[in-house]
Amino acid sequence: MTRASQAPDILSPEFAANPYPSYHIMLEDAPLSWHEGMQSYLVSRYEDVSRAFKEAVYTTDNYGWQLEPAHGRTILQMSGREHSIRRALVAPAFRGNELDQKFRPVIERNSRELIDTFRAQGSVDLVEDYARHFPINVIVDMLGLDQSDHERFQVWYTAIIGFLSNLSQDPEVAAAGVRTREELAAYLIPIIQERRENPGDDLLSALCAAEVDGTTMSDEDIKAFCSLLLAAGGETTDKAIGSLFKNLLEHPEQLAAVRADRSLVPKAFAETLRYTPPVHMIMRQPAEDIEIAGRTVPAGSTVTCLIGAANRDPRRFAHADSFDIFRDDLPTDTAFSAAANHLSFALGRHFCVGALLAKTEIEVGVNQLLDAMPDLRLEDGFTPTEKGVFTRGPASLPVRFTPS
Ligand code: HEM
User: Fold this and answer.
1) What is the pLDDT of residues 336-355, one digit of tens each?
2) Is the pLDDT at 153 greater than 90, yes or no?
3) How far does residue 351's CA lie from ligand 1's centre (Å)?
4) Whose CA is nearest to atom 6 of ligand 1?
5) Would residue 69 count as lying in a domain?
6) Is residue 178 one of the residues assigned to a domain?
7) Which of 63, 84, 120, 301 would be a feasible disulfide site paired with 77, CB 3.0-4.6 Å?
8) Among residues of the chain, what percentage have pLDDT more than 70?
9) What is the pLDDT of residues 256-267, one digit of tens each?
């Protein structure tokens, strides 16, 4: 039996408990393998995963079955000119002045409101009571939707992520995703129509008015994009905040360094993205036969790119299994752009459009949390564990601190 065939299966409980030993075996002995249950090739090495993200032959047609039934058609599955126009319609809201002047105050307020619910208590679960809510609250607020609907959005986004990560094709999870598409449309389309009549100073109104080269977004386009935002911007940033605090709490000397010098927050975020990426795998569908790791993968196959493995490829990163915010092979000035050398926001045309929004949320959130909890420490005797195979982060993170 080869070492590769002894690696815990990607759909097994052992893998879910700790995927890194399997990633290591794949990186060394099986850089390309076929997974019968997922009907997909698995690709683990940095060089192969980054090529898959950058080269146009690796299409995103997979999102037609992986996401469209739950979201509708979104920019993730578009390519060429259609994709670049759609991206140009939505991208301005997530960078530069729009982000800094209009949305930073929204981010600061939403973080503060959550922290105010527990700052006097002296204990909190950072995942359950902060990370799970913060990014969704921000998006709902940016879109100008009703604050009292936050809980409904939580339910919808959990169902959408369930659909996307349904590697074992559970029919109930699939049905909940499709139901969400209908519920979200019934909720959002009337609001979009109302915003067209009475525009406000919010992201939804901006999307209604956006125009590039004579192209505008239909009600269905906007609804699908909002649905994508909930999943792409909620689940990911949620996991990133939880993982960043888990990593720092497990490395108290690095936590002390970040607390003393807040300019290290982006470094801690970049290293968290590399070491414990919120999204562990992304799929692609090559349009032609391609060669990966010396073997031919036929056109139309599904290729699962293992970001969690590639970010720990020893060919690319020194002491890849150590969390080290001071590492010199992960430049922070490019870490939140398409020139990043970790793969957690992907690369190329579909590079995460919300990377700078995520960075702003993390900077604001981490700074406010460190200010509110000067002596933050894990609950006595608690050892954090991670949850999730497709997306992954700490299951919970109970901490103690002196109340303020
Ligand atoms: C730490 C946080 C985040 C991570 C790790 C992350 C990760 C990713 C990844 C891996 C992709 C590429 C998917 C692919 O190529 O198939 C992506 C795309 C995307 N992300 Fe993010 N994301 C984060 C935050 C956000 C936020 C805050 C937003 C917006 C609210 C957002 C919106 C999007 C959108 C719209 C796309 C599609 C871009 C396109 O197809 O051109 N993301 N993200």
Assistant:
1) 999 999 999 999 999 999 99
2) no
3) 7
4) 345
5) no
6) yes
7) 63
8) 99
9) 999 999 999 999
CB-based pocket (< 6 A), ligand 1? 60, 75-76, 87, 139, 228-229, 232-233, 236-237, 240, 278-279, 282, 344-346, 350, 352-354, 357-358
Q: Across all residues in the chain, what is the average pLDDT?
A: 94
- Give the H or E element holding residue 42: strand 40-43
User: For residue 345, which of 12, 44, 50, 24 has the smallest C-alpha distance?
Assistant: 50
Which atom of ligand 1 is closest in space to residue 361's alpha carbon? Answer: 27
Q: How far is the CA of 372 from the centre of ligand 1 (A)?
A: 29
- Ligand 1 atom closest to residue 94's alpha carbon, by position in its atom list: 29
CB 134 within 8 A of CB 204: no
What is the total count of domains within the chain? 1
Ligand 1 centre from 283 Cα, in Å?
14
Contact 307, 344 (CB under 8 A): yes
Residue 1: the pLDDT is: 47
CATH number for the domain harbouring residue 249 = 1.10.630.10
Q: Is 391 helix (H, G, I), strand (E, B) or coil?
A: strand
Identify which of 345, 349, 356, 360 to mutate to test ligand 1's pocket (most ligand atoms within 8 A of the CB): 345
Instruction: Give 323's DSSP letter.
Output: -
Is 382 within the bounds of a domain? no
Q: What is the CA radius of gyration of the chain?
A: 21
Please choose, from the candidates 51, 58, 59, 45, the residue with its C-alpha nearest in 3D space to the C-alpha of residue 307: 45
Q: In 3D, which of 330, 22, 276, 283 has the Cα closest to residue 165?
A: 283
State the pTM of this model.
Answer: 0.96
Residue 177 belongs to what domain range? 86-263+350-377+393-400
The most distant pair of C-alpha atoms in the chain lies apart, rounded to whole Å, by 67
> What is the average pLDDT across 90-117?
93
Contacts of 250 (CB under 8 A, 6+ apart): 323, 384
